[in-house]
Amino acid sequence: MDVKTAFFYLFSLVMLFAAFRVITARNPVHAVLFLMLTFSQAAGIWLLLKAEFLAITLVLVYLGAVMVLFLFVVMMLDINIDSLRQGFWRHFPLALGIGAVISLEMAMVLFRGFSLGDAPVVPETVTDAAGQAVQYSNTKALGELLYTKYLYPVEIAAVILLVAMVTAIALTLRERKDSKKIDPSLQVRVRARDRFEMVRLAPTQAPPPAEPVPGAPAEEVKK
Q: Any residues with CB less than 8 A from the CB of 142 and at least 6 apart, and which?
């Protein structure tokens, strides 16, 4: 067994364990952390397959943005675990059926085996326009393929993502009765005298006269 094969089995075992803990962890924060571990191990496997662009995209997009957002939302929300477990047995038959279908599909793939003869061979060097041999770049080849053969699907996906982003912003900025948002135009027109009022008070006030105590001498009352 060479070093590459050993790393593949190491990344695979850790990824399978982390994926299993994602669905079995009782704490949602722990489940998100195990999911981040799963993505990191998948990125390592992609590096072994010489898919550097996909590996760094998985790390930057999912681990650096999406998972941090998930972790922030899970930690900020007050999730009641007991209420989530109330419908467990009601949805258990559906989950069991979906799990059986997935297990059957994986068994069919494993029993039939993998045909390694059709796997693409990654060249070490390629010839550029000038006829010189240069090192093969996986990222460059993927970019040329996306923006030449698959240009229209990429543009359609970009438009869909733009519409989704604009819709999310519009839903966030809509007027709500329970919102404490302040209109910036009103804040700009605020004047100091509208918020601060000077009240003039006398510097000293005479003390109120002492009330006579029944049975006390007159001299003591004057004092």
A: 53
Angle at 216 between CA 214 and CA 218, to 5 degrees: 115
Token pair, residue 45, equals 């496997």
Question: What is the Cα–Cα distance from 88 to 209, expressed in whole angstroms?
Answer: 77
pLDDT averaged over every residue in the chain: 79
Percent over 90 (pLDDT), the chain: 17
Do 154 and 146 contact (CB within 8 A), yes or no?
yes
For the segment 79-125, what is each residue's pLDDT rounded down to a tens digit? Answer: 666 666 677 778 888 888 998 998 898 888 778 766 655 556 666 66
Q: Which residue has the higher pLDDT, 215 or 170?
A: 170
Question: Within the chain, where are the H helices?
Answer: 3-24, 28-48, 52-57, 67-76, 81-84, 88-112, 138-146, 151-172, 184-188, 192-195, 218-222
Structure token pair of residue 97:
């059926």
Specify which residues 134 forms β-bridges with: 126
| Long-range contact set of residues 209-217: C-beta below 8 Å, sequence gap at least 24 | none
Tokens of 111: 């029993």
- CA geometry: angle at 29 spanning 26 and 34, to 5°? 85
Taken in order 52, 53, 54, 60, the sign of the CA dihedral is positive
Tokens linked to 182: 């302040």
